[in-house]
From TrEMBL:
Keywords: Chaperone, Isomerase, Periplasm, Repeat, Rotamase, Signal. The PPIase activity resides only in the second parvulin domain. The N-terminal region and the C-terminal tail are necessary and sufficient for the chaperone activity of SurA. The PPIase activity is dispensable for SurA to function as a chaperone. The N-terminal region and the C-terminal tail are also required for porin recognition. This is Chaperone SurA. It comes from Vibrio quintilis. Transmembrane segments: none annotated. GO terms for biological process: Gram-negative-bacterium-type cell outer membrane assembly; protein folding; protein stabilization. It is found in: Periplasm. It comes from the Bacteria.
Amino acid sequence: MKFWQHFLITIISLISLNINAAPVELDRTAMIVNDGTILSSDIDTELRLIKLNAKQKKQPLPKEDALREQVIDKLILDTLQVQEANRIGIKIDDDRLNKAIQGIAKDHKQTLKQLQASVEKAGIPYAVFREKIRTEIKISEARNAFVRRRINIQPAEVESLANILTKQSDTTVQYKISHIQLRVENDEDKAKQKALADQIVRKLKKGANFSKQAITYSKGPKALQGGSWGWMRKEEMPTIFADQIKLQKKGSIIGPFRSGIGFHILKIDDVKGLETLSVTEINARHILIKPSIILSDEGAKKELEGFIQQIKSGKATFGELAEQYSQDPGSAVQKGELGYHAPEIFVPEFKHQIETLPVGKISQPFKTVHGWHIVEVLGRRQVDKTDAAMKNKAYNILFNRKFNEESSAWLQELKAGAYIENLEKN
């Protein structure tokens, strides 16, 4: 749950129940936490908010003493985290705070004025609300900074979990497969059959008919059926087939791979029930000119307009001009070429240009945070990212799991090393 959602739900509860904050007759320091304090009013306010929220949701609560102890523990941990944030210099400026509050309003389909009115109707001064959100952001930043460095995820862990997730996904996936088997009679025959298998795979990848190749060469049980095994789930396949299929898409050629019998080649004729992720990658080239004390924005733009005229008139090529003038050293040595990438890795203005430009067309000069550009799209391609997406999913699961574990450990270490005095017991 986002850091502000609990607080906003509580506000909504307050509004629904139409209860205003009770005045505080006397305030005093209840806890000392290192060089900070927790006031009695802080504890009472937190208790009241939790009770109102629980009443709205019809959630049972423990006895008053147990609940108060939980609230005090939370406030101690919050105070310690704020102290750590201050120690490493985390500051949340008004611009960032305003964007977060705008996000809260948007999430709950309110304008900023409506949100402010809701907060104040609940008896909470808007200034207090803003500082509460600022504190929550600061705590979140501190926790991220300290906990992330404690997390170590090994590639083998990601691979292992990705395989488990793949197997879970495979339970509903059906594959229509065809098979070619080349039998190895003896050791002397192995090299010959391997060479034949490689030759068949090359033909298949160039578009040769799999059924014809199977009938011609295969010694497998389905040779006369063109190698077709029909539709099967992985658990229904021979193990040597299932071990080779890892979410391949329709048309994939797998192999050759070896077994005790000989060499095998598989083709995925079709797939049912497999969710695949395909992304568009774009190859573009650009020329970057950076404004400076000497060169104004207008001057940089005019220089690029001159380059466009040179290219169109045939006086120079895009690559020659990029190599000579572009101030992006990484791409300049490649004649401005950036290679195939997903558009999302670029800044918004550049992303918009490469997504909307036809292949072969040069853009008009445009500005980004890096300077002024002209760009040409060289090509687009569809790339299957299903396997990468599964590994990314596995990484995120591992990260979240370890983050929660390490967060708890970090907080307990903070508390164990802190000076905490309960003045209520004195």
